[in-house]
Amino acid sequence: MASSGEERRARRAQERRQMILAAAARVFARKGFEKATTREIAQEADISEGTIYNYFSSKKQLVVALAEVVQAKLTAVMSELPSNGDNRANMAQAIEQALAVIADSAVVIRGLVTALWDQGPRFDGYLIPGAHRLIARVEEYLEAQVSAGVIRPCHLHTVARMVMGMVVYVTMPYLQGIELMPSAEQRCGKAELLVGVLFDRLRV
Description:
The chain has helices spanning 4-35, 38-45, 49-52, 59-79, 87-104, 106-119, 124-147, 156-175, 184-202. By secondary structure, the protein is an all-alpha fold. The longest helix is centred in the first third of the chain and has 32 residues, at 4-35.
């Protein structure tokens, strides 16, 4: 069993790691991947530049870690989709929670997207598998609904991609800073709209 001292050190290390990632996201959002430097990220986090390398091997690894943070949060939301109850409400709730995650992580996602936009295919191997996992989870949910006779048979992979694409499209204005972050009530309304547009059209 770890001692209390070891637990404190582990907790401080995790907090420092999260602080570095938050600083990297802000710098990437302002400058993009190519122009951002680890020195600027260190200044943003109020630490020495060398401290970054205690946690991340390179600037590229910072982008990978940011992608993993966002993917983990969204995957958790998709993994909690219930298999029973009101299916329409379940899907609306999942989309609303996904919108909440994106709103809460807006700075991180903005920095991540800016960095990835600079690099294009060079980072596909890190971001796309995470997206595929999310799409696969939605596809599994839809397949269960087809098997239960709730929605009619369709090309599930395409529909799952449409669901994820619609969520991303809805969130882009506030990720770009064009619109204010939506309130909880507004997120609920957007989720209901997306479910109404897509899910209701598939209902048996």
